[in-house]
C-alpha cells in the first residue's frame, strides 16, 4: 500500500517524488483545446433522420461526446462522488483490494506496472467486472456504504448506452442488425481512475499515450479537465461537458471494422488545482470470442488489414508489458547483408575474403 499516491499526499504536497518525474522529452506541455469532437445528442433518436445522423457520426470518428444518453444526471454525479469516497478511505479499508495480480477480480493498483516500470504514472485505479451484475456485485466493496447500489445502477445504465451505440455503429458501417450482440458485447468492465493533486503537473503524466483494447469506452470525466487526445500528431485538451460521456473507439472495434474505425490515442495529465476522479466503462467481448474483420466489409480475403485472434489469447500478462517508449514498431527488412557462398570458395576465394573483412 506504500505504492498508492493518495497514502503519501501529506508528504508530497511540495515536491514530486523523483520516481514519478519523466525525462524532459516525455513531459507534457500546455496544449490547446480540442474544438472538433462532435457532440451526439441521443434525445431525438426515435426520429429516423436523427438515427441516421447519429449512426453516421458514431461510425466515422474515433471520439465523440454523448449527451441525453439516458443515464440520469444524479447517477452520473453519484458514481464520481462514491468513487472519490473509495480512494479517501483509510489504508486498512483499501488494502485487501490492492494487488499486482491481473487475475484478481476487484483490483486496486497504482500507476501501470509499478514493480517493473522505471518511472511511475500519477494515477491510481480500482477496476472490476460488472456484467452479469449478479455474478460480481457480491465481490465489490461494501464501504463506502452506497458503493454497490450506485455502481450497480450505473453499470446497468451505461451498458444500455454502450449497446445502443454499437447498434448505431452497425448501421453506420452497413453491418447486419445485431452484429455486436451476444458474446461480442457480453462483458462490461468499470475502472475508477483517481489522479491525486499534483505539486507540479509539468513533470508527470497521469497516463501515457495509449489506446483502449476492447470495443468501446464510455468516460464519465466529471468537471476536472485532464484528458488529451492526439489528432494529426498534436495533443489537444478535451474540456469536460456536464453530464456527457466521452466515447472512444477501441482496438478490437478497429479490427472488426477492418480499419474503417480508428482507435483513439489519448493520455491524461493531472492537476495542481484539484484531484480528478473519473469513471471509465469498457464494453468488451467475452473471453472466448473470435475477433476478426466483419466478412461483409471485405471485398475479398486479401482486403483484410488484420488477422483474427481469440480474446482468450488477447491479453498479455501485465508483467510482460513494456512501457510505451520501449515497445517495438514495425520495421523494414534488411536487404544489405551480403551472402557468402562457400560452395564457390575454390573459384572465388579472393572475393569471399573481401566480403568477410
UniProtKB/TrEMBL annotation:
UniProt xrefs under Pfam families: 2OG-FeII_Oxy, DIOX_N
Q: Which domain of life is it from?
A: Eukaryota
Any one Gene Ontology MF annotation carried by this entry is: metal ion binding
Give the matching InterPro entries.
Answer: DIOX_N (IPR026992), IPNS-like_FE2OG_OXY (IPR044861), IPNS-like_sf (IPR027443), Oxoglu/Fe-dep_dioxygenase_dom (IPR005123), Plant_2OG-oxidoreductases (IPR050295)
Pinpoint the Fe2OG dioxygenase domain residues: 184-285
Q: Which portions of this protein are annotated as coiled-coil regions?
A: none
Keyword line: Iron, Metal-binding, Oxidoreductase
Family under the similarity heading: Belongs to the iron/ascorbate-dependent oxidoreductase family.
Tell me what this protein is called. Fe2OG dioxygenase domain-containing protein
Q: Which organism is it from?
A: Actinidia rufa
